[in-house]
Amino acid sequence: MEFTVRTLSEEPGLRERFSEFHRLAWPRFVHEGNGAGPLWSRIYTDFADFQFGLWDEAGALVAIGNSIPLICDGSMGDLPPDIPEVLDRGVAVKRDGRRPTALSALAAIVDPAHRDRGISRPVIEAMGAIARCHGLKTLVAPVRPSLKQLYPLTSMERYVTWTRADGGFFDPWLRVHQRMGAEIVRVAPKAMVVTDTVARWEEWTGLRFPESGTYVIAGAFQPVKIDLRRDVGRYEEANVWMRHPIAPHPTLSPAGRGKLEP
């Protein structure tokens, strides 16, 4: 199946669709909790060439991708510790007029109505094509494993060691990256941190927290810490930094338009 890639620069109407896709993909505490930091909205105003949609042959928008260029060599020591730092680096590079060297993925979301069609891989391929188009040598991704929420009491460091009999990663989203030649560089233990009032956490989760302590909640990679005396709930989410090879693939025009075939 062929997919058409168009960037936000080409399709300004995509802006509202990004919010729609994010609401479908993330738990409320991730989507509304601002764990990515205050600079997230800048990806749409300052980096429109790096935000894109994938349309199928029927003309349906089936997936979106968010990414940002920054200066990074993809090594363990040079990868940002968290998502806010990824955004901060990207914004700083643009502000200072410096030339970025890498592209960092931020989100790759397939419409739930179109899952199981092998679309997730073309989203990452589109990021690689956009990176090449802009002369970037490295593609990195702070991956959010899709099944980690089912194992919240297992550390991410342990979770990434789980494999299947064929040697592939246990987690299907990690496995997609692995099959594309990506390798794990390191775990970012606090890639996103969400802190808010206890009332807000109760609204997000539909739970009541009768005493201080740690609570397992739906969609969370690890338990949330609730402190009633301080009226605060804190969630620290680990992601997995992976580095992709920038392999030859059908190219995109400078504006981002192109065709991709899985």
List the topology elements:
Elements: E1 3-7, H1 14-25, H2 28-31, H3 42-46, E2 52-55, E3 61-70, H4 83-95, E4 102-110, H5 120-133, E5 138-143, H6 156-159, H7 172-179, E6 183-196, H8 198-205, E7 213-215, E8 224-227, E9 232-244, E10 258-260
Parallel strand pairs: 4-5
Antiparallel strand pairs: 1-2, 1-10, 2-3, 3-4, 5-9, 6-9, 7-8, 8-9
What does the model show?
The chain is an alpha+beta fold and 262 residues long. It has eight helices and ten strands. Strand 7 and strand 8 form a beta hairpin. The longest helix has 14 residues. The relative contact order is 0.19.
Report the average pLDDT across residues: 93
Strand-residue fraction?
25-35%
Element-by-element helix/strand order: EHHHEEHEHEHHEHEEEE
Overall number of strands: 10
**How would you describe the oligomerization state of the chains in this entry?**
single chain
Span from first to last CA?
7 Å
Q: Please tell me how large the radius of gyration is.
A: 18 Å
pLDDT < 50 runs, ≥5 residues: 253-257
Q: What percent of residues adopt helix (DSSP H or I)?
A: 25-40%
For the largest beta-sheet, the strand count, sense and barrel status come to: 10 strands, mixed
- Number of contiguous helices: 8
Structural class designation: alpha+beta
**Outline type:** globular
